Amino acid sequence: MEKISLRKEVAGRVIQGHPWVYRNEIEAPAAFPPGELVELTDAKGRFIAVGYCNPKSVISIRVLSRVKEQIDGDFFRKRIEAAHAFRMKFFSGEEAYRVVYSEADLLPGLIVDRYGDHVVVQILTAGMDRQADAIVKAIDAVLSPRSMIARNDASSRAIEGLPVEKKILTGEMETPVVISKNGLEFELDLLEGQKTGFFLDQSENYRVLKGLVEGGEVLDAFCYTGGWSMHAAQFGAKEVTGIDQSEGAIERARRIAVRNHFESRCRFEVANVFDILTAYEAEGRSYDCIILDPPSFVKRRKEIENAVRGYKEINLRAMKLLRPGGFLVSCSCSYHLSPGRFREILIEAAGDAKRTLRLLSFQPQAKDHPVLMSLPETEYLKCAVLQVL
């Protein structure tokens, strides 16, 4: 294992628990193989950690272990067992949850999600891709799934010099896969759906609708396949309207509504949310609760200002459509947008809409997406529950 010496300030940061070393912080040979295991030392040659290196990536080294140990199948099995044991403290008896959340589970570049008898795997980095066989065997040993699906279609793989692909790794998968979440049934497409098939990170936040929507009219913007919509109906909404620009997602949302016997109260429409909110305002429509759960508006830090304008616009439009005392559930999954800046956007939108906000709660991602305190990037989801006066 080749040794890489870190500068004092970089070594100090890694020793404090940060799991990344950036490309401009090391001097690596140009021909260094992507994904190669390396030993990190300080300037005096003292051991710091074991990681893997990809000089082609902005994040050139990701830490795997802070002790000298063999990185093999047994290593991955133990790490995945520990990650699963943590989930069982909160999700015992659940069918669907994230088993491994990359750096937060000390397995950088690896995502593992469980959907009943099926497991979806995302391998995002060259370092983990080189260990793919050992990882698949470890997952099979710990979770014994009926099928394992690779959703290696994230854009970050191309940056790492890896092929972008989707395929069934082991076993057989029926279509659709049906899971139960919070007492509701959802049908998923594990090969083609967004993320790995379901928004597991919102599974606890869906429950904030209890007590907010009973007897009310609800608008679910960016509804995708109706996660928020179904929970609104479950918690007593009189009428739910879901909007999304994906025809496939809307078709599936309608089927899921029928599956849960909510078809008489849930309707879904294919439309651009920005356009429809403006049109609804012109028509004089109003709602008791509006849910905004858009896709990430900012993938890179340099896009932040455009994203801020987008978040402000949809929140401003939503606030204008809410009846006095109505509720707004506003989300952002952009980790480049800090919680503080997101709150500022909401306040600015309320000012322009001439409405007053009352904060009920500010929710994070679910517990199966834990936050690594030394890596702020693992904390990305923000869900503000507001009353609009």
Task: Set down the secondary structure blueprint.
Layout: E1 2-5, H1 8-15, E2 20-22, E3 36-41, E4 47-53, E5 59-65, H2 73-91, E6 96-101, E7 110-115, E8 118-123, H3 126-129, H4 132-143, E9 147-152, H5 155-159, E10 165-171, E11 177-181, E12 184-188, E13 217-221, H6 227-234, E14 239-244, H7 247-259, E15 266-270, H8 273-283, E16 287-292, H9 304-321, E17 322-332, H10 339-353, E18 357-363, E19 382-388
Parallel strand pairs: 1-3, 8-9, 13-14, 13-16, 14-15, 16-17
Antiparallel strand pairs: 2-5, 3-4, 4-5, 6-7, 7-8, 9-10, 11-12, 17-19, 18-19
Helix pairs in contact: 2-4, 8-9, 9-10
What does this structure look like?
- α2 (73-91) crosses α4 (132-143), α8 (273-283) packs parallel to α9 and α9 (304-321) packs across α10 (339-353).
- The chain contains 10 helices and 19 strands.
- Strands 15-14-13-16-17-19-18 form a 7-stranded mixed β-sheet, sandwiched between helices. A 5-stranded mixed β-sheet has the order 1-3-4-5-2.
- It is an alpha/beta fold and 389 residues long.
- Helices cover 29% and strands 30% of the residues.
- The longest helix is centred in the first third of the chain and has 19 residues, at 73-91.
- The model has no long low-confidence stretch (mean pLDDT 94).
